[in-house]
Design goal:
This protein is of the alpha/beta class. The protein has a single domain (about 5-250), classed as Glutaconate Coenzyme A-transferase. The chain is about 35% helix and about 20% strand. The protein has helices at about 15-25, 40-45, 65-70, 85-95, 110-115, 130-140, 155, 205-210, 225-230, 265-275, 280-290, 295-300, 305-315, and strands spanning about 5, 50-55, 80, 100-105, 120-125, 145, 160-165, 170-175, 185-190, 195-200, 215-225, 245-250. Strands 2, 3, 4, 5, 9, 10, 11 and 12 form an 8-stranded mixed beta sheet that branches. Strands 1-7-8-6 form a 4-stranded antiparallel beta sheet, covered by helices on one side. It starts with a strand and ends in a 9-residue tail after the last helix.
C-alpha cells in the first residue's frame, strides 16, 4: 500500500501480537472481588511512564476522583489520550504528572497552555473522533483503521497519521494507528464487585477504551449486588473480565455532572478557572487534592448540603437509571 503523506507527530506504537499475548496471560475470566480503595487501585495499576486513557471528561461523567488520586500519588511522565477532555489535562498537568498529550481537545486553563507553550508538555494533534477511532482499532486488535477525516488539515500534519491510496477504490484515505493504553480510568453509574459495569445515557467509547487497554480501573456511583446484574444483563456496558479494579466513588465525577444523578458544581468550576497561573493552580490542588487524604474526605470538604443541592438541581431522570 503506497504511503503518499505522513504526519510529523510523535506516535507511540505497540506490537499488537505482544499486546494480545499479554492479555491472554494476564487477564482472567475468573470471578473475584475487585473492590478496593482509589489509593490501592492507583498504586497497583497506574505507573510512571504509562499511557493513560479515560472515557468522557471532567464535565460529564468523568473519572475525576481517580484523576485527583493520580495527582495525589504524584505519578510522572504519563502520556494521555485527551479525547473529549476539559479539566482532566489541566489537573494532571498541574500536578506534574504528564509529559505528552495526544490531543483530541487539549483542555482549558492558562497553566495548561503555558506548560505546552514552554515545551514542558509535548502535544500531538489528532481529533476527538480519530482518537476514538484509534481506541476502536485497539479494541479490535488491528494495527490501524481507515478514515476520511484529517486529510488536508494542519491537524494531519501535526498528527502521526498516514495517507495512503486505497487498493480497492484508488482513493486517498487516512490511516490512524491503534492505541493500546497501559491503563484506562472510567467512571460508571453502577457496578458490581466483580467489575460488571453499567453506563447510562450518552457516552463516547467506554467499551472500546476498556477493550483496548491492558488495565482498567472503574469508579462507580453505586456498588450494586451481582443479582441485580443478573436480573438485567442487557444493561451491562463493561463485562467483568475487562475490569481490574472497582472503586466506590459517589459523586466521583464532581465538580462535573453525572447526567441524571447530579448537576455540575458551578462554584467549584469558577474556582478552578480562576487559577490563571501555576501558583494559583497549586493553591487549588493544595486545597482539593493534596489537602485531603481521599475522595471521601474531599466530599466532606465540599459538604453534604452542597452535594445534595447538586442532586436536586439535576432534573432529568429519563434514560439515566435502570
Amino acid at each position: 500500500m503506497e504511503v503518499i503523506a505522513a504526519g510529523i507527530g510523535e506516535t507511540r506504537l505497540w506490537d499488537i501480537d505482544e499486546v494480545r499475548q499479554w492479555k491472554g496471560e494476564k487477564k482472567t475470566r475468573k470471578l473475584h472481588d475487585k473492590v478496593m480503595s482509589e489509593r490501592e487501585a492507583v498504586e497497583k495499576f497506574v505507573h510512571d511512564g504509562d499511557y493513560l486513557s479515560y472515557d468522557l471528561s471532567s464535565m460529564v461523567r468523568g473519572p475525576m476522583s481517580l484523576e485527583r488520586e493520580i495527582v495525589r500519588q504524584r505519578r510522572k511522565d504519563i502520556w494521555i489520550a485527551a479525547k473529549f477532555t476539559l479539566l482532566d489535562t489541566s489537573i494532571l498537568v498541574g500536578g506534574g504528572c504528564v509529559s505528552r498529550i495526544d490531543v483530541g481537545f487539549a483542555g482549558l486553563g492558562r497553566p495548561l497552555f503555558k506548560a505546552i507553550e514552554e515545551g514542558r508538555v509535548k502535544t500531538v494533534d489528532w481529533s476527538n473522533g480519530t482518537l476514538a477511532l484509534r481506541h476502536m482499532a485497539g479494541a479490535m486488535g488491528v494495527p490501524c483503521l481507515p478514515t476520511r477525516a484529517l486529510g488536508g488539515t494542519d491537524t494531519f500534519v501535526r498528527s502521526g497519521a498516514r495517507q495512503v491510496v486505497d487498493p480497492f477504490t484508488e482513493k486517498v484515505m487516512t490511516l490512524v494507528p491503534a492505541v493500546f493504553p497501559d491503563v484506562a480510568i472510567i467512571h460508571v453509574n453502577q457496578c458490581d464487585r466483580f467489575g460488571n459495569a453499567r453506563v447510562f445515557g450518552p457516552s463516547i467509547s467506554p467499551v472500546e477504551t476498556a477493550m483496548a487497554s491492558r488495565r482498567v480501573i472503574v469508579s462507580t456511583e453505586e456498588l450494586i449486588p451481582t443479582e441485580e446484574i443478573k436480573r438485567n444483563p442487557g444493561q451491562t456496558t463493561l463485562p467483568y473480565y475487562l475490569v481490574d479494579a472497582v472503586v466506590r466513588a459517589p459523586w466521583g465525577g464532581h465538580p462535573g455532572t453525572c447526567p441524571g444523578w447530579y448537576a455540575y458544581d458551578a462554584a467549584n468550576l469558577d474556582e478552578f478557572f480562576a487559577a490563571q497561573n501555576d501558583e494559583e493552580m497549586q493553591k487549588y490542588l493544595a486545597k482539593y487534592v493534596y489537602g485531603v487524604k481521599d475522595h471521601f474526605e474531599y466530599l466532606e470538604l465540599i459538604g453534604i448540603e452542597r452535594l445534595m443541592g447538586l442532586k436536586e438541581k439535576e432534573t432529568i431522570r429519563e434514560g439515566y437509571h435502570p
